[in-house]
Design a protein that fits this description.
single chain, alpha+beta, six-stranded antiparallel barrel, three-stranded antiparallel beta sheet, 6 helices, rod-shaped, MdtA-like_HH, HlyD family secretion protein, coiled coil, MdtA-like_BSH, UPF0194_transport
């Protein structure tokens, strides 16, 4: 064999060997998923008309920023009525705790004395007619009426005495307890209306981006209908499905390389959540090679450099430092 031919054969052998080694190189572990944001839906607390919208769709907002205002007129009226009811119950409770006035007690004593005087007069009249019964000087009907009047007068005395005793004994504890419960109910109702009034001013619960405003200025959304939908967080996160073979080697806090569709440069991320149970087909229903179909839901937090990426883009995740 000539020297030139031997050289060409050696070069071909080296290239084939390098190609084989390159083809046998193990790819780093990967997982697929999509970019996602945590969606926050802010519902209408009451069926009131929208009187102001302070943001627009796509706008970045901070926590506590005003987003929308619903008409507070009706709720303010309900609050005023509830507060008036609470004040009334508070005064009723104070009246019961203070007990009867001295003037009321004096009035009851005077009523008792008047009833006693009438009773004595009625009893005396009956006693005067009683001896005349056997001499036929008085009709039996007149005697019966005098007897009934005397008994009625005695009953009036007993009623006046009971009324006086009630005032002297003061308010019963059960009445005070009932008044306290009524006051608590009225106060709670006023507090509920106050909370509802505050909810009519819809604010951002945390920083994020306005994704959708389904209703427009002047609309009246039903109770519970979403009026503002936010995408929470300064940047999206990657939601991936981790294959079963890689689950044991991945932990919360591990570094990842996230490749986003349409972007050449990967984004650095860290595992922030990793489910302990598989998704899709349960493990107990799989046998043999089917066990490779197990997957575990995981979330990869991305940094501020991914803030402008939209939700829904496909992603591919490589585990930093996993390749051998």
């Amino acid at each position: 064999m000539s020297t030139a031919r031997k050289g060409r054969h050696l070069s071909a052998t080296i290239l084939f060997t390098l190609a084989g080694l390159s083809g046998c190189a193990k790819k780093p572990p990967q997982a697929l998923g999509t970019l996602e944001y945590d969606r926050i839906t802010l519902p209408a607390p009451a069926a009131e008309r929208i009187v102001a919208i302070d943001v627009r769709e796509g706008e970045q907002v901070r926590a506590g920023q005003a987003l929308m205002q619903l008409d507070p007129t009706h709720t303010q009226s309900e609050l005023a009525a509830a507060e008036a009811q609470a004040r009334q119950q508070r005064e009723v409770l104070a009246e019961l705790r203070n007990g009867p006035r001295a003037e009321d007690i004096d009035k009851a004593r005077a009523s008792l004395r008047a009833a006693q005087a009438q009773a004595r007069d009625a009893r005396a009249y009956y006693n005067r007619l009683l001896p005349l019964q056997g001499k036929d000087y008085v009709a039996a009907a007149d005697l019966d009426r005098a007897r009934a009047a005397a008994g009625d007068a005695d009953g009036q005395v007993a009623a006046a005495q009971a009324a006086l005793d009630e005032l002297l004994h003061g308010t019963r504890p059960e009445q005070i307890a009932q008044a306290q419960a009524a006051l608590a109910a009225a106060t709670a109702q006023a507090s509920a209306q106050q909370v509802l009034l505050g909810k009519l001013s819809i604010v951002a619960p945390l920083a994020g981006r306005i994704d959708n405003i389904p209703y427009k200025l002047g609309d009246q959304a039903p109770v519970g209908a979403p009026v503002v939908i936010m995408l929470a967080g300064a940047a999206p996160y990657a939601r991936i499905y981790l294959p079963e073979q890689q689950r044991a080697g991945v932990h919360v806090g591990d570094a990842m390389q996230v490749f986003v569709a349409g972007r050449d440069t990967p984004y650095a991320g860290k595992v922030r959540m990793l489910r302990s149970e598989p998704t899709f087909t349960p493990y107990y229903a799989l046998i043999g090679d089917d066990a490779a179909r197990l997957s575990y839901l995981a979330e990869i937090a991305l940094g501020p450099q991914a803030a402008e990426l939209p939700a829904g883009l496909p992603v591919r995740v490589e585990f930093a430092g996993s390749a051998k």
